[in-house]
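Homework-ish question, so no full write-ups if that breaks the rules, but can someone show me the predicted structure for this set?
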Amino acid sequence: MIDLFRKKVNNYPDYWLEYENSFKKKPIEDLKLARFVVLDTETTGFDYLNDRILCIGALSLVDKNIALNQSLELFLKQEHYNAESAKIHGILKDGGASRISESAAMEELLRFLNNSIIVAHHAIFDITMINRALERNGLPRLKNKFLDTSNLYKKTLLNSNVFKKKEHYSLDELAEKFDISKKDRHTALGDAYITAIAFLKIRSRLKGKGQLRIKDLLKMG
Amino acid sequence: MKNTISHRVADFLKNFPPFNVLGQADLETLAEEITIVYKEKDSVIFEENDEPHPYFYVVNKGAVALKKGSDKSIMDMCDEGDIFGLRPLMAQENYKMSAKAHEESILYAIPINIFKPYAQKNIAVGNFLIESFASNTRNPYSKSHRGKLYDEVPDINPVAPDTHVLDLQSVQYSKKLVTCTATTSAKTIAKRMTEKKVGAMLVVKDKMPIGIITDKDLRNNIVTGKYPITTKAKEIMVSPVITYNKHLTITQAQMAMMKSNISHLCITKDGTPNSKAIGILSKHDVMVALGNNPAVLIKAINRAKKIKSIKQIRKSITHLLQDYLDQNIPIKLTTKIISELNDACVKQIIKLSLEEMPTKPPVKFAWLALGSQGRSEQLLQTDQDNAMVFENVPEDKLIETTDYILKLSKLINKGLFDIGYDYCPAEMMASNPNWCLSLDEWKKTISHWIINPGTDEVLLSSIFFDYNITYGDVNLVNELSEHIFETTKKYPIFYLHLASGALQNPSPTGFFRQLLVEEDGEHKDSFDLKRRALMPLTDAARVLILSHSVKSINSTAERFEKLAELEPNNEEIFMACSYATRALLKFRTKHGLLHNDSGRYIAIDKLTKEEKIKLKRTFKTIKEIQELVSIRFKVSNLLR
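A: Not a homework solution, just the prediction itself:
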């Protein structure tokens, strides 16, 4: 019975505790100093229950700089496989790059993330996929704040009756609007890069409304 | 860590010196350590006398201006693939120039401590650096490299060369050689010259130049009947060829041409006729290098085979505009010439886009410039506003046809974007299915606007009704104009709404005749020249000219002139409006050039007393014309 009241913290591996501890620090308020992690996942499909992550790409963004030696590209070993979606992302079940287990990938991802703000296109999808993977490995959900470039992009558009905003904007549309090369589209890191540049360009366009703060961004998207 | 992005960075770098001499493996290692930096337009990368960063930079996208001295004159403009900020790192001194993003840019920052070992290890890299520092250019090979990018059009200096240094600047010559052998017939030569759009053909033997045939030689020898059309090249060529090496300066080239009274020089590898011919330099190239002549620019535009080369030419157009304003050339003439040039750019982009389409267009179509571009009032590059109209087709063909035209429009919009016209934030572009319609569909849309003139409809018509055909079938456009006149005549209430729309712009001055400035937002405390001063005039001119059913006069100033002619009793006020429009346009353009923006927002505190007086003088005219519109169309206070 006493067990019920004792914290279960001890069951979690060290890297989770480290990750969790990073949130005890006061979050950075200055947009120039805060670290954003721009990420994208390639999955076997869009079903949160049955589909699995095949690849995670993540870039670290501080101020307006993306240092390539601080990026993450993980290929995961998965039992579930969907031939249909493989046509899009081109990741074969046993092909190419060296693969790691889902639990190892989660460890690397958490070490990379710490308390950074996550930026992703249609962020809910990627974050839910990652949370499911964490759950399967006996870990709690992500604790990071996150921004969705699809929502942020809508804020840059004109508010006018003559022109109707769409409900969703695809990453392709953003890449075209902002003139970002789509060569690496549908690779996790390539999509993360497009998202990162789009995020920077969105930020510069949102600045029109005075000095942009992290608080404002979080409110918008 | 090697990954998809570092791969892509390496892929980019390997096209440019000195990275092109590095091995793939070295390049990939280098790429992994790079930081990708995003710079907003006008943001500073480093200032003169700053301590050097631990990186040097390569431009991946956009453009960076290097400036020096208290007057901040532009020393150099770095484009894709250009390196900057390296010399201070090697010499371990502070920056000698400042670097500022001239456009929104993406840079690769390369850590010097990672790069230095390569420079020391690899002789070719070292040589590049030594040569680049010795010649004091950022990239001694940039010219021969640019040649690859813009081989059809010789690179036009974005910053026209300072006349003082003409003696020192080497010229840009055409590298795509058009050659024949001694036995080629005159007919074939003429055909190929027409095909390649060149004025001279080099006759070569073992790649060495043995003679040259120009347009003039063909005229003098063949057309006069002196020789038959089947004559061999060796009979009519001029020989020997005057040759130079590629380090020829602009002044040298001019002198050489004058001295020998010729229009073409041949560039060979070592400058003698006994080495490989690598290029040809025409009088035209020299003029282009001098770069301030509209005729030369038009020719260069029409010759452009790539959108990228048009972008270069656009920079020269901006420079030309600056010159005109500096020399106080009448704004009427300036506007005409610059609009003409802008128009030519758009036309060329449409032509290039048509070539890119897999099939010929299934129907006639017309590309319409809207807004300020339609009014030929666009001196600076602003957002795109355009639309497409195409011939009516049977209903079962409509979807297919629309698809084709939309695809074409998308290409054109992208091309315009690439040369510097931003996408319209409200999507008023031909690639938007609402702005890409058949003639009948447009008629329907326009009728709807005119019959149901709500706020949105009036706004849409005020943007659309200034259309001007840039390319395509003029009959389609005439029919559209006829339709507008007929419909507005049937529904005169529309004038009332258009007129009340014209009166809704905020007033330029407050109660105490002080200039009213924006109260918040990005442009807080600056004066919105477009909305508060230019738009009231433009809107008034539109509704008045429409009520007179005058078509194909689009420029606001010219509309007022026409109105003065139609209504002699109001001549004075209309002429004042015409003058005010031009004055404001000039004002806007000057400020836009000064700040490298659209010139729409003016910082009041930076204006001189004289400028303020000039500005205020136009406001009286604006007030008067608004009163005239209000009375004529009986815009009641209720509607306002």
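Now go work out the reasoning yourself. Hint: The interface with chain B takes residues 57, 59, 64-69, 71, 73, 156-158, 160-163, 176-177, 179, 183-184, 187, 189-190, 193, 197, 200-201, 204, 207-210 of chain A (CB under 8 Å).
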